[in-house]
Amino acid sequence: MQIGILECNQFSKKAISTLESVGKVELFDESKNNLAEFLSDKDVIFVRLKHFLGKSLLSSAKQLRYICSPTTGHNHIDVEHLKSRGVELISLKGETSFLNTVRATPEHTFGLVLALLRNYKFSFCDNQKSFEDRELFKGYEIYQKKIGIIGLGRVGGIISEYFVCFGASVEFYDILDVEHSDQINKIDALNVLIDNNDIVILCASYSDENIAIIGKDQLDLMQGKYFINTARGELVDEAYLLQKVKSNHFKGLALDVLSSENGNNNLNRIRKYSETQNIIITPHIAGATYESMSKTEEFIVDKLDNIIKKLGTKKGI
């Protein structure tokens, strides 16, 4: 079995060791390999988020049987094409018990809120600032702020616990009837949630059914509010978001995700306005910690190994 790892930098050594018991492991080197040629003989491909595996690229992977992605979202993979070919996608989607032990994204999201409230981006000391300047950078506390969370899945649920601990008032909106603590309140209408709260955090899962759930009406309601998106860029009408950024619409905006991250996107357009506004953009690093990445890689490898063992297709068979 030929196994290819596309983003091998700091890939878990324990995970690679397990993979080597399954088949021959090859690491992709962008400076030496052509991606299509690299995929041509692979039975298994490991991918994070750097590459978009669409039909045109995957057509070169004639032997492909499994794609492994240590992510919950799949918008970097042409899932319909995989289904048409009978290629199995192995990911973290639905692995609730395991994912509850992975706290990177909730922590990053909480950190972005704190950074926006306290003007960290502008207040970090450099050669242009001194301690006499501190009155220019006064911020706000989380205590007693009104937090609205869109999507109370794993990430949203953990974030709500963090904010409750800090004394904030928390509400949430979810299309599903999800269990929740009696310390937070469910709101049945998305627009009401946004209207009610000072800080709006997008944690919803991405699917073909909920593309751009944050549209013009919802963005209009965010005037003078803080908006944080660590879910998926495709969940927001980004063209209209850019219009709102141009008019200095938000009190604070933090984006860890954008639409079309692997192609033409709005990064430079939004970044231009971040120079003078309370806007923070991070390069989809919410889930990128040493702990979370090694843990998820090892989990996915074990999942693959178990599937192969059940099918009786261990190395050499």
Write down the overall geometry: globular
* Beta-strand percentage range: 5-15%
Mean pLDDT: 92
Quantity of strands, as a count: 12
The stretches of 5 or more residues where confidence is low (pLDDT under 50) are: 313-317
Strand neighbour order, sheet with most strands? 8-7-6-9-10-11-12
Q: Please estimate the helix content.
A: 25-40%
Question: How would you describe this structure to a colleague?
Answer:
The chain is of the alpha/beta class and 317 residues long. 34% of the residues lie in helices and 14% in strands. The chain contains 13 helices and 12 strands. The strands form 2 sheets. A 7-stranded parallel sheet has the order 8-7-6-9-10-11-12, sandwiched between helices. Helix 8 links the parallel strand 6 and strand 7. Helix 1 runs parallel beside helix 13 and helix 6 packs across helix 8 (154-165). Residues 313-317 have low confidence and may be disordered.
Secondary-structure map:
Elements lengths: L1 E4 L7 H8 L3 E4 L7 H5 L4 E3 L8 H4 L7 E3 L10 H7 L2 E3 L5 H4 L4 H14 L2 H4 L22 E5 L3 H12 L3 E5 L11 E2 L3 H7 L2 E4 L13 H5 L5 E4 L8 H9 L5 E4 L11 H8 L4 E3 L8 H22 L6
Parallel strand pairs: 1-2, 1-3, 3-4, 4-5, 6-7, 6-9, 7-8, 9-10, 10-11, 11-12
Brief digest:
The protein is of the alpha/beta class.
Salient structural properties:
317 residues; seven-stranded parallel sheet; 13 helices; 12 strands
